[in-house]
């Protein structure tokens, strides 16, 4: 049986994958979908509560993206194959089957707009794909 232990994981690649996921979020929510996301989420950028704790929120989201990248690293290491296509496939699997569906399940019950499902769901799919590719191609 091929078991993966934490020492088998390329931790630098996992960190780089998590950081890339985070940077994608900066581009996704600041440039690509900023106005649509603000409108659909119902967040008022003039609300002083939105601006408090931004650093803590961003740090927490970075930590969660690194945790997602650890999961990707475990799966990619367990598969034992490297290359961008492996990273892409594992990232798509995780992004679609876990991240995007979990968001959508919550949003269904919370009655969130479909557009918000799509913006946040596709962000997580692309984030997992990018992190997966980085982890799979990073030199050992």
Properties at a glance:
single chain, about 140 residues, mainly alpha, about 0% strand, elongated
**What structural class results from the helix and strand content?**
mainly alpha
Number of helices: 6
Uncertain ranges: none
Strand content: under 5%
> Alpha-carbon distance between the termini?
22 Å
**H and E string:** HHHHHH
Number of strands: 0
**Roughly how many Å is the radius of gyration?**
16 Å
Helix content: over 70%
Sketch the major β-sheet: none
Describe the structure.
The chain has 140 residues and is an all-alpha fold. It has a domain of 89 residues. Helix content is 79%, strand content 0%. The chain is built from 6 helices and no strands. Helix 1 packs across helix 4, helix 1 packs antiparallel against helix 6 and helix 4 crosses helix 6. The two termini are 22 Å apart.
Short summary:
The protein has 140 residues and is mostly helical. The chain has helices at residues 11-32, 34-41, 48-51, 54-79, 84-110, 114-137. The relative contact order is 0.20.
Write the SSE topology.
Blueprint: H1 11-32, H2 34-41, H3 48-51, H4 54-79, H5 84-110, H6 114-137
């Amino acid at each position: 049986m091929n078991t993966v232990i934490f020492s088998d994981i390329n931790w630098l690649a996992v960190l780089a994958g998590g950081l890339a996921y985070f940077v994608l979020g900066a581009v996704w929510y600041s440039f690509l979908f900023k106005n649509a996301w603000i409108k659909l989420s119902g967040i008022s950028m003039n609300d002083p509560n939105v601006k408090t704790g931004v650093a803590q929120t961003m740090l927490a989201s970075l930590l969660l993206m690194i945790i997602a990248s650890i999961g990707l690293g475990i799966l990619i290491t367990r598969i034992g194959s490297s290359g961008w296509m492996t990273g892409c496939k594992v990232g798509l699997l995780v992004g679609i089957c876990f991240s995007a569906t979990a968001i959508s399940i919550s949003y269904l019950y919370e009655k969130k707009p479909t557009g918000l499902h799509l913006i946040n769901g596709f962000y997580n799919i692309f984030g997992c794909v990018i992190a997966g590719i980085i982890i799979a191609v990073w030199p050992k």
